[in-house]
Structure formats: C-alpha cells, structure tokens
Amino acid sequence: MDYLLSQRAGLGDSSFYVYNETLIQSNIEQFKSVPYRNFGIHFASMANDNPVLLKMLQANGFGIFVNSRKHMKLALDCGFSPELIIFASTGICEPTMRLIIEKGVQINIDSRDQLKLYGKLNPGGEIGIRLNIDEKSKNNIFTGLESRIGVLESELPEIFAIADRHQLKITGTHVYLGTDVTSLDDLLEGVDRTLALSNRFADLECVDLGGGFPIDKSRFDFEQYKQIITDRMVQYSSARGRDIKLVLEPGRSMFGNCAYFFTQVSDIKERPDRILVCCDSSASLIPRAMFYEDYNPVEVYNSRSTEWYSKPVDVVGSTTYSRDFMAKGLKLPVVRVGDWLKFDFAGSYCYSMITRFLGQAMPPEYLQRLDGSFELIRAGESYFDQNVSMWTSEEIASGETHRHKIKKVIYSGESQHHKLEILETESYGIGLFLDGRIQHLEKDEYIYSESIIHPVASGLKGDNLNALVVGGGPGGAIRELLKHRRFAHITQVEIDAGIITLTKQYLPHIAQGYHDDERVNIVIDDIVSFARETTQRYDFIIYDISEPLSDSPAANLFTESLICNLKDILTEQGALVTWAGSIGPLSSELAKKINQLWKKVFPYTERFMSHPQSYGTSWLTVAGSNAYLGLSELSREAIDDYCEQNIDGALKLYDGMTHQHMFALPKDVRSLLDDDYITTKSDIISHQINPAREEYI
C-alpha cells in the first residue's frame, strides 16, 4: 500500500479507491454458506458496478439484480446469463420492457399498469411481483404506505385479474425490507409478513427477500440469521408442498467493508470551535453523506503524530460548495499537508454514487489481490500531465529518453519486490514493465530472448546439458533454451512469483507453455541463497534479471562475491551469460562496469551486441567461462549446421550470419569497453581472479 500511495502522492487528483480481494472472498463465502438448498444470491448492481468485481461474483455462481437498461447490458457483458439477471424498477417504459423480454431476463413488476403493459407485450409469460408489505411491517421508507415502490395488498385482486386476462404466470414475489437493518427481529418480522402475502400466489416458485444487511458484521448475527431463514423456508416449502426458492440481494454488505477511499490533506484551517482539514477531493467523490447524512469512518493513514487535536475535526473538500463535508466531528491526530486520510467502508454506494456536480475528476479503483499485488481495475481521470500519463519514459542517457505510447493499462500492481505492469503499447503490442522500465514487448522480445541464449548455447560442448536461468520470469529465454535438444534439465530461480503468474496469464505468447515442460524446474528463491546452498553444477547459467539500478532489487545481484559463487557452480566447460545494458557514446557506464566485473571473475570473456528496437539503443551481452569457447571464431557454416542438427522450432533472428555480425563489435564500442581490445584470438585474455572477491558494482 505504501508503494501505491507514493506513486499517487502529489499528483493532483490523487484520490483513489482500493478493494481487498481477501475480504471480498470472505463475504462471498459467507453468503454462499446459507444452508437452504434451493437458494440464489443476486448482487444489487446499484451498490457497485465495477466490471472486474461483477465478474468475480459471476465466477462464483452469483446472479445479479439490476434496475436499469445500462446495468442490464453491463450484467450481460460481464457474463451473467439472462436467467441469473433480475430486473426490477418502477415506471418501466415500453421500449425497455420490450428489451427485457427480448433478452430473456427475469422481471419483477411494480404496478397494475406495468403488468398490463407486460401482458400486452408478452402474453403467457412468467413474472414476479414487487410487493409493498404495507403498514403491518416495520415502518421505513422502503415499506408501508409512505413508500412509492411495490404493489399493495389491497391491489392484489386486480393484479390476479390482469394476469388471468393475459394468461400470465406469477411465479415470484419480491420485497425490500430496509437498509442497514441490524435487528434480527425486525428483519424476520418482514420475512414472515412477506411469506404470508406470498401464500396468495398459487403458482409461486420463488421468494426474493432483497437485502438490507449492514456493512459492519459486528452489528448483525448473520450466522444466526442464515439458520433461522433456512428453517423458515423449509417449513414454508413443506406447507406449500414444493421447494420454494429463496433469493437474497445483498448490496452494501457484499463490498461495503472491502474497500477504502484515500485522499491527501491539502490545507488545514483552525476555527474557534473546530479544525477544518481540507483534502484534494470532495464529498462528491465519496457521496454517501450527501444522500444519507452517514459519514464513513476516517483515520490518518500511518500517522506518526503523537499529538491530537483538542477540538473536533471536520474533513472538507476542495470546492466552494458550503456543504462539502466529507466527515464531521472527528477526533484525529495532528495532520500535515500531504498526509493521507483513509475512509473505511467505501466499497458500496460510494464510487457508484459519484456525481459530476462540483467538477471533480473520477478517481481510479485498485484491487489488492490475494497475493498482495495491486491491480488497476478502473482508470481514473486526471487533468494534470494527462499526455504524459499515456506514455512510458525511460532515461537512456543524461538528457535523452525513450518513450512508448500506451494504448491500454491491462494490469498495474505491486508485489513484494517490484511494481508490475502489463501495458499495451501502440507500436510494440503488449509487454511487461518492472518498476516502470521495459522488460519485454511482444513484437521484438525475440531479439532479446534469442540473443541471450543461442550465441553461447551453440558453442557449448557436450550433451545432456544442465542450465540455470536466474530470473527469466516472462519465459522468453527458457522458451529459446528448450529449442536446443542438448539441454536435459533447466532450473529457473525467480524471486518474484508474481512475475511468473502475471506473464503466464497475460503473456502466454512469450512463455509458450514452458511452465509445463518436464525438463523445467521452477524455484521461487533468491539467487544468493540458491547459489550458496545448491550442490548442482551447471553447463550454462543465464543471468536474465532487471537492470542493477540503485533503486532496483537487482542492484545487489552484480557483486563480485555473488558472481564468483555462480562461477563456482559452473562445470569446467560452463559459461555464465548476462546482458550488460545499453552501449553507445552516451550510455555505456553500466555496460563497462559489468564487462569489467566479468573479466575480473572469469578466465575467459567474450562480448557481443544485439539491437532490440523497443529499448531505443543497442545492447551489450557478456559471457564468462571457465574454459576457452572461441564463440567469436565460430564460422557461419558451423552455426547453420548446428542449428539444423540441434534446434527444434523456428528462429526469427539467429543464424550463422547473425552470429558473426553479433561478435563483430564496432571500433567505438571496443574503445568504450577496453582500449586494448582487438578482434583476434589473442583478445580472449586469461585474467587472474582476485581472491579477496571485493564488491564491484
């Protein structure tokens, strides 16, 4: 969470919602645990209309309750079958009624005239009736004579007559007993009244009791409720002589306690009787209070303050609307501009009720997945640097950047080790970005993947070879390695399981199923521990990790001690290959350091270049070995023969001619790397290893 907050801090329009999948799954299981066997759950879409969340419910077998054409279309688009969609509203116009019938969606009728319209459009159809259980039930705005919704008991004779005229079959009754009902007795009183009225419907198959459950689980005993409602329905079904289906329609109780709303403090005012804390937000963005005068609980996130305000605190929006209060009368620690406020119980009737009034930018919504990563599930608006937000930008050298225009954010989250993004770029398609930097883009990842594997693998000696891939989460390097028949075993050591999961889901074209290959063993571990503890020896180690920048987890993986440990687990004829970063007149420092480190550790080193266009610069790759391999001297014919005899599958880049060109480094590159570099056999110089193994990078 801290990483997500740091990314949004100071942006302007910094407010956002974040949902917790663990809490959502807990609520899903709670409702699924009702023991009554003929039971359905239909989530009330008015509470939250985020498609990602709706698809989670659909995948768990839930139905959905809608009251508009827009939400009916949304439900169908999210995969809900028509028979699992219940449409109930008031004053449904004829075009909408026709559309409901055409789509095969269930409908609950609210009035006599609505029933006549339905009968005219769909004679012989099946429907439900929305009941108003009148003044005998607990009095609130949802029931009784003051309510505008539903059919009164006194209107039922005419309802039955209209149904008979149009040969309609009334198979369901539908009620809504209130909102945030905490009294089990009050709720059951309404249930009993509903069942009593439902006795008047001869063809009854279903009773829909709506929702009304509170967000705060501590205020309502759902375990007791589900057992009582099950007993009631078993008794009722027995009395009716057939199983009557029970439907519940949770709204706020499904997501309400599963989300928070975050916003930054932008100003503090002191008044004689209170403190005003102003936020980069507005009540229009978390508007329950504007409708219900019911404020969300608020706390200062990760407050380090030891002082508390002696006066009550009101949280207000950054508008001129006099009633823009987001919370009132709070007891809070002293805050500073830039602190984050966290609003609890923000998962239902919050984002879905946002109003354009006051002109605030729509906030984004994130989902914290079960593995702790954060995924952007609905993009927000921003009126700050909007063009910049549609591009990625990487610095190649001082004063020089390389950018990609982004068409779509497919995934944005964070794991324990990285900020993870799957982005669709306009030019290069879908790709993986770690900590804001390109790792692979689909249209030219083959250049990188083939380059780090084939030039060295083709020159190794022997059969039944054993390979170790360090990192390599996306799988391109392993995909290429598996094309060589000579490799019998491949171990992948990847510290971040989130990368493997993410790329398996979103980038299957890169991995091409290597996870299921019997030759591959995937180990989730850090390479420092693995290299120290393994008893295996490897013919080929591929260092396929992110750049060792100062703020990157990879910064600790290019030390002399670790590279020496990896050298020690190589076979006598083995080699360790790594990319060394960009190489050019203005961007060679990292490549020079890695090249020097390899020359310091290994008796023999060789270097070659590749040119992945999506990176915006040429890249250097360095191979270190315990024995002389002579990779640069392999002929075009020898490589072509090797590929024909030992490689299965097509290669887009690599062949004999490409191999020779890769090792033919330009003069300026040779000069950057080593002033005495010459392109003859004598260039493969034997180096003495420093036994002190000092840290180098």
UniProtKB/TrEMBL annotation:
Coiled coil: none
Metabolic or biological pathway, per its Swiss-Prot or TrEMBL entry: Amine and polyamine biosynthesis; spermidine biosynthesis; spermidine from putrescine: step 1/1
Active site: 544
Superkingdom: Bacteria
Cofactor(s) required for function per UniProt: pyridoxal 5'-phosphate
PROSITE patterns per the UniProt record, alphabetical: ODR_DC_2_2, PABS_1, PABS_2
CDD domains cross-referenced by the UniProt entry: AdoMet_MTases
This protein's record includes keyword Transferase: yes
Binding site for S-methyl-5'-thioadenosine: 494, 553
Residue ranges of domain PABS in the record: 389-626
Record GO terms (molecular function): diaminopimelate decarboxylase activity; spermidine synthase activity
Alphabetical keyword list: Polyamine biosynthesis, Pyridoxal phosphate, Spermidine biosynthesis, Transferase
An example Gene Ontology biological process: spermidine biosynthetic process
Reaction(s) catalysed by this chain's protein: S-adenosyl 3-(methylsulfanyl)propylamine + putrescine = S-methyl-5'-thioadenosine + spermidine + H(+)
E.C. code: 2.5.1.16
Role played: Catalyzes the irreversible transfer of a propylamine group from the amino donor S-adenosylmethioninamine (decarboxy-AdoMet) to putrescine (1,4-diaminobutane) to yield spermidine.
Subunit-level organization: Homodimer or homotetramer.
HAMAP family: Spermidine_synth (MF_00198)
Similarity remark: Belongs to the spermidine/spermine synthase family.
Protein name as catalogued: Polyamine aminopropyltransferase
Classification of source organism: Bacteria, Pseudomonadati, Pseudomonadota, Gammaproteobacteria, Pseudomonadales
